[in-house]
Write a structure and sequence with these properties.
The protein is an alpha+beta fold. Helices cover 34% and strands 23% of the residues. The strands form three sheets. Strands 7, 8, 9, 10, 12, 13, 14, 16, 17 and 18 form a ten-stranded mixed β-sheet that branches. A six-stranded mixed β-sheet has the order 4-3-2-1-5-6, sandwiched between helices. A two-stranded antiparallel ribbon has the order 11-15.
Length: 392
């Protein structure tokens, strides 16, 4: 059973959940301002195979195979979807769009026709989304230089509205349910594939969808695994194993993210106790400093407890989340993630803090962490699954 407050339960129970008119106007105003700054008068937004969150953010239609839309400030949207059988449902979701129809042989042709009818001029068209080369070529052949607003879009998505936070809370509850399903299914003889099935059974029947459930099992005494595997293995769990996992389940593309480690049938070994103690200390130290105005460099400094314990990390320490894998993306002192961003953290910014502490030889590691939001009081988790290194 997934317990939600009444206002979230009513959102979950809706046949087609929707954001308010005020929220949709807020988003469109942000996009229009970014377009004006870039000198663009029209925007093409796109998504493919469930990738490209701008389509849903602007129209409320979650992308399936393909969706291309035209946004012109002051005019209703036009959107074209693949395949023809996806059109009826897309019409219901994107109810405010003037045109929602099948894109035919190539949706980009209908986009070009729409832009032409709207009087689009050369060098006045912008794009948000992962547009393929061929579609970009078709746009640029007709409208000259096409501006990318993807970085601007990432900045728009970094900070969440109260409505967006509510949708993410449902995704977090689904993710917690998946982690509980994993915990309850772990026992000697069960393999990673079966554990993945248990995770999905915990939330799919309630309306949740899967983004990832990465799982890894290895012996704590002869470890050969530092992080969860992206693809499950048929190896059976054994007494003395550690099971590490990262789970993201979503509510209409609004996901949580929770990471945990479990010792199977016995207490953690001294090495694994030390690994998890460093990871937990890093989580506490990082979340203690996350407040509006704090700089990414301060987060890296707080996480030095990992290096002080003699370990490093194998994944990003912190990353923005919700509408994409967002900036800032931070590593640690011993495993940087690229140039250190200088933009301060902001109120209502959503982040995953995930100290994935590992040995330097990459043979042992643990997972802990979760999605939260920066409030005036600091970092507040959106999850409720118990923290710690549980024995199962």
């Amino acid at each position: 059973m997934i317990a939600l407050p009444p206002h979230l339960q009513s959102l979950l129970d809706a046949e087609i959940p929707r954001f308010s008119t005020a929220e949709m106007k807020r988003r469109r105003d942000l996009v229009a301002a970014a377009m004006a700054e870039a000198g663009a008068e029209h925007l093409v937004f796109c998504g493919y195979n469930r990738t490209g969150s701008a389509v849903q953010w602007l129209t409320q239609w979650p992308v399936t195979a393909e969706a291309l839309g035209v946004f012109t400030p002051g005019l209703p949207d036009a959107m074209f979807v693949q395949y023809v059988n996806h059109e009826p449902l897309a019409r219901r979701f994107a109810a405010d769009a003037e045109t929602v129809e099948w894109g035919g042989e190539a949706s980009i042709r209908k986009v070009v026709d729409t832009l032409t009818k709207r009087g689009a001029m050369p060098d006045k068209v912008a794009v948000i989304g992962p547009m393929p080369f061929e579609q970009h070529a078709a746009l640029s052949a007709k409208f000259g230089k096409v501006a990318s607003l993807n970085r601007a879009y990432g900045r728009m998505r970094a900070v969440k509205s109260e409505e967006e936070l509510d949708w993410l809370r449902i995704g977090a509850a689904f993710s917690d349910a998946g982690m509980a399903g994993l915990r309850d299914a772990i026992r000697p003889g069960v393999n990673e594939r079966e554990l993945g099935n248990a995770i999905e059974r915990a939330y799919v029947g309630h309306g949740g969808g899967t983004v990832i459930h990465f799982i890894g099992a290895t012996s704590m005494h002869r470890s050969d695994l530092a992080a969860p595997r992206q693809f499950p293995m048929p190896r059976a769990v054994q007494k003395g194993d550690v099971v590490v996992s990262e789970i993201t389940a979503h509510f209409w593309d609004h996901g949580g993210q929770v990471l945990r480690s479990f010792a199977v049938g016995e207490e953690p070994t001294p090495l694994y106790r030390a690994l998890h103690a460093a990871a937990y200390a890093a989580f506490e130290a990082v979340t203690a400093v996350l407040k509006p105005g704090v700089l990414p460099a301060q987060v890296i400094e707080a996480a030095r407890v990992i290096e002080d314990a003699g370990f490093t990390i194998i994944d990003d320490l912190v990353h923005g989340f919700g509408g994409g894998y967002l900036q800032p993306i931070l590593g640690s002192a011993s495993r940087p993630a690229g140039p250190l961003p200088e933009t301060p953290f902001q109120l209502n910014q959503t982040l995953v803090v995930q100290p994935n502490v590992v040995t330097h030889d990459g043979k042992a590691g643990v997972q802990t962490g979760e999605l939260g939001v920066i409030t005036g009081r600091g970092f507040v988790s959106l999850h409720s699954f118990p923290r710690g290194f549980a024995r199962v």
